[in-house]
Design a protein that fits this description.
By secondary structure, the protein is of the alpha+beta class. The protein is built from 19 helices and 36 strands. The longest helix has 21 residues.
Length: 772
């Protein structure tokens, strides 16, 4: 049977993960289903989601404080108009596909995401108060704006399917004269405000605003050709006025205007309430794919906000998230970053059972031809790479002032050779394979791309007088300086060779490079270490504050060094303590990485402490995060740190509640997706795990460390006893075919199997800006 093309694979739901990875979601609920949901008095999803809603009783003044709406493409951040002379509210309009197309100026200028503009909601009077609520369940902002002349009741959403920002405003008598004003942004790379412009670079010409038979459009021409267009129309029904906004981008043709006008005209025929029905259907189905409840109210709310944020910023068919997601703000980083950001942004999609958000697997497959162009000409026939930054098509451009030419050449400086980024990104693809066991991901995406990513390393490995294979100097992201035998690259190369050998065995491929992969695993130089643990590389000790854990990837997320021996555990503990012990340059994702590494060691108290440091130091009122500019990966990776405390499934074993702190004696998880394509449900009450259920989607081997003390009963979906084998460490192995399930309980126990929210162990403020 001939293999399908990669574009065919990407275009069909069945080829990459079946219905699980198909665009969109499960079939939306029917009207009867919606009514039944509404009638349930104690629906656990509604309980946790309503509790997690963000509220504002003070005016947000920045993107880090305000509500945010999105659907992976169109995004709007909402906050006060910064102009001190104005009493208005800004609704930003940004889009993840809108970018420049001048590769000669590099990914951060010539291919950068471009700002579009914003609307201001301008009341008649001066704003004196507000009461807003962002409903996670409905993905909708509702509330009232109060002025000295009256009130403005509003509802707002970015429609899931139509990609339209809809804002319905019902004014009180004194505010009937409120208005909307659009402010086009200068179409220049946001990096221009932070760094010198490349020679010859200039911004695009101004947008042209005109009426088109009742629909207004701001047409932004691009010097490289193409355009992006913001089109809008306001419709009135009685006192209520509704604004409909759509953004379209086209390159090299100028077809965006026609598409934008058509979308606005078609959508504006619908009332806001009619538009909201299908929008809510998608979101309601989205949340029901998994469930988590824990007794820390602040963290539980944070977690569900991250699931909302992820689906607002990511979709399988959307561009891989740039550093700020679809909500472009002034930033020195106006594109996609591949030496940590993209990887962390998508980790939570696996355990939370939301593979429909996995843009990395789709993008690496679809644009693989561009990856060959990021290695220098002599290596393009058999090698691939990805540089530090790219546009959504994985293009870096020429002579980027930050990244040089592509990934660089090991042993040559300049440019700095940052070689491991593609291999690390492919680890995300491997996670998608392992959590679905979808062989098409393995056969058509992971194996061929990883083979060529590892091949690039193989060109430069060289034997030393010690009998080991060594790497010439490469760069460990962000630390500074090139080093021989850089741990970032050695660790990724080791994982890559091991994964290629395992994949070839699973696929029945007799690969001629297999002996070379075996040789690398047998002869690769040991990871450089000293008395403080892992070094940056053979030439550079870890000796200064450093936010990135590029030298620790073998510990996390690769799980190549796991503490299975006392010596390994000591090495991890020494390295972790030394890394976080340097204050000065630590940032938010330092603490999410430290939390996950602590969870690997079973140290739930440490993991919670690191998350506490993250919350106290870095997380903003709306759960966004900033460094020199807005960045989105850290809060999303904190959700993954929670996953790592609740369930781990590396190394072929599912570990249930491996690193819970004492403050979390009660916990409920439902349909948590694990490696091996199992859906895990489990309940812990009073510090005791009461039951664990696993549903097999692929018939993969099932080994679970369930954490239930003493003898257990294991039964199938009909209550019949299942045979199992146990080991001394509390792991049981159960044979499950595809579609079968196993319920594990203490012997003789018949616990309540209801999935329910956990009562909070204390009061906690809501996210947003509640009244002081």
């Amino acid at each position: 049977m001939p293999s399908p093309s990669r574009r065919t694979v990407l275009a069909t739901g069945s080829a990459v993960g079946g219905a699980l990875l198909a665009p969109g979601l499960p079939t939306p609920a029917s009207a009867a289903d919606r009514a039944a949901d509404a009638a349930k008095p104690s629906d656990p999803w509604r309980t946790v989601l309503d509790d997690a809603d963000l509220v504002w009783q003070r005016m947000p003044t920045t993107w880090y404080e305000g509500p945010f709406l999105g659907n992976g493409f169109l995004g709007s951040g909402i906050y006060a108009e910064p102009d001190a002379t104005s009493s208005a509210v800004r609704f930003n309009v940004q889009h993840s596909e809108v970018q420049d197309h001048r590769p000669e100026f590099g990914s951060l200028f010539g291919l950068a995401r471009l700002p579009i503009g914003y609307f201001t909601l301008e009341p008649v009077g001066t704003i004196t108060g507000l009461d807003w609520r962002l409903s996670l369940h409905d993905a909708e902002l509702t509330g009232t704006l109060t002025t000295d002349r009256g009130t403005l009741a509003l509802r707002a959403l970015v429609h899931n399917d139509r990609s339209v920002l809809a804002v319905e405003v019902t004014p009180g008598e004194g505010e009937r004269g409120f208005r909307w004003v659009f402010h086009p942004a200068d179409a220049i790379s946001p990096r221009a405000a932070f760094k010198p412009l490349p020679d010859g670079y200039r911004g695009n010409p101004p947008a042209e605003v005109a009426d088109h038979d009742g629909v207004t459009a701001a047409v932004q021409p691009l010097l490289a050709g193409g355009q992006h267009v913001t089109a809008w129309q306001e419709r009135t029904s009685g006192r209520t006025r509704t604004l409909y906004v759509h953004v379209a981008h086209s390159y090299p043709r100028t077809t965006a205007l026609e598409r934008a006008l058509k979308t606005v005209r078609g959508t504006a025929r619908l009332s806001y309430s009619a538009l909201a029905v299908t929008h809510r259907d998608w979101w309601h189905a989205y949340y029901r794919k998994s469930f988590l409840s824990l007794p820390d109210a602040r963290i539980q709310r944070f977690y569900w906000i991250q699931l909302y944020k992820a689906a607002s910023a990511a979709r399988r068919d959307a561009p891989v998230m740039a550093t700020s997601g679809p909500w472009l703000e002034p930033t020195p980083w106006p594109n996609t970053w591949w030496n940590l950001n993209a990887q962390l942004e998508y980790w939570l999609v696996h355990g939370s059972n939301h593979l429909e958000l996995d843009a990395i697997t789709r993008a690496l497959s679809e644009f693989r031809d561009n990856l060959a162009k990021e290695v220098t000409q002599p290596y393009r026939a058999d090698s691939l790479g990805i540089p530090r930054t790219t546009d959504p098509h994985l293009v870096n451009g020429a002579a980027d002032p930050l990244t040089g030419y592509g990934v660089g050449i090991p042993g040559q400086d300049p440019p700095t050779p940052e070689v491991g980024n593609l291999t690390w990104a492919l680890h995300n693809v491997w996670l998608s394979y392992r959590h679905t066991m979808d062989e098409t991901i393995l056969r058509y995406v992971l194996f061929p791309l990883l083979r060529k990513a590892v091949n690039y390393y193989l060109h430069f490995l060289e034997p030393g007088p010690d009998g080991h294979l060594h790497l010439p100097a490469t760069f460990s992201p962000e630390y500074g300086g090139d080093s021989r035998d850089c741990n970032y690259d050695l660790m990724l190369l080791t994982w890559g060779c091991r994964t290629l050998l395992e994949s070839a065995g699973l696929l029945g491929i007799d690969d001629p490079l297999a002996p070379r992969w075996h040789e690398v695993l047998a002869k690769r130089v040991p990871y450089p270490t000293d008395e403080n643990g892992f070094m940056i590389g053979a030439d550079i000790p870890f000796a200064k504050s450093h936010r990135h854990y590029s030298h620790l990837l073998a510990v996390y997320p690769l799980y190549e060094v796991t503490g299975r021996t006392p010596g390994q555990r000591a090495l991890i503990e020494e390295s972790l303590a030394h890394w976080v012990g340097f204050e000065g340059a630590l940032q938010g994702y330092t603490f999410t990485g430290a939390a996950s590494m602590s969870a690997l060691l079973g140290k739930g108290e440490d993991a919670l402490r690191y998350l506490g440091e993250l919350m106290a130091r870095f997380i903003q009122p709306n759960t966004m995060y900033k460094e020199s500019g807005p960045v989105i990966e850290t809060p999303l990776s904190a959700a993954q740190s929670l996953h790592d405390m609740i369930c781990q499934s590396w190394g072929g074993t599912i570990r249930v509640f491996p690193a819970l702190p004492a403050a979390w004696p009660d916990l409920t998880v439902h349909h948590f997706r694990t490696q091996g394509a199992f859906l895990l449900s489990a309940v812990r009450r009073g510090g005791t795990t009461r039951w664990v259920r696993l549903v097999s989607e692929a018939g993969a081997p099932c080994a679970v460390r369930h954490g239930i003390t003493g003898p257990v009963d294991i039964r199938d979906g009909q209550g019949r006893p299942l045979r199992y084998a146990g080991t001394a460490d509390g792991t049981v192995q159960v044979a499950l075919r595809k579609g079968e399930s196993a319920l594990i309980t203490a012997k003789g126990d018949r616990p309540d199997l209801t999935v329910a929210a956990v009562p909070p162990n204390g009061e906690a403020p809501r996210w947003g800006l509640p009244a002081t």
